[in-house]
Amino acid sequence: QVQLVESGGGLVQAGGSLRLSCAASGRTISGYAVAWFRQAAGKERRFVIGLDWNSLTYDIDSVKGRFTISRDNAKNTVYLQMNSLKPEDTAVYCCNAREKGYYSGDPKNYEYWGQGTQVPVSL
Predict the structure, then answer these.
(1) For residue range 94-112, what is the model confidence (pLDDT) as tens digits?
(2) Spatial distance between the Cα atoms of 20 and 36, rounded to a whole number of angstroms
(3) C-alpha distances out from residue 109 to 14, 23, 25, 42, 96, Å
(4) Which residue from 91, 94, 101 is spatially nearest to 62, judged by alpha carbons?
(5) CA gap 25, 58 in Å, rounded
């Protein structure tokens, strides 16, 4: 079993930056695909950005050039660097991990989830 714990969320002004962390325990996830999903109030959980085991990344158009996903295998941790934040980025951000090494945009394809961390972006 893998446990994922996110941290780093919090209130930020539009135009600001945050770095979210997702610490994994229980197993090494270096060969897993990992992804960040987000869920805004009253909306469905949606894929934001993913990272394959071989370091290929995938992101949605609205975050291109602003968000970056990375991992530190020595720390068994995944990061989401968010720059130039906008109010529409406001959501609960959740880290996922998938034993198959290739990302998926469907949350049902991930075996492991964190509890999420809130990121409110103010004007």
Answers:
(1) 999 999 999 999 999 999 9
(2) 10
(3) 32, 20, 20, 22, 10
(4) 91
(5) 24
Residue 46: what residue type?
R
The answer to whether 70 touches 81, Cβ cutoff 8 Å, is: yes
- Residues with Cβ within 8 Å of residue 105, at least 6 apart in sequence: 47, 50, 58
Q: Tokens 């660097």, residue? A: 81
Name the residue among 39, 35, 30, 15 with its Cα closest to residue 106: 35
Residue-level length of the chain: 123
Positive or negative, the Cα torsion across 68, 109, 94, 33? negative
What the block records as the tokens of 8 is 């780093």
pLDDT of residue 84: 98
The ranges of the chain with pLDDT < 50 are: none
52 contacts 33 by C-beta, under 8 angstroms: yes
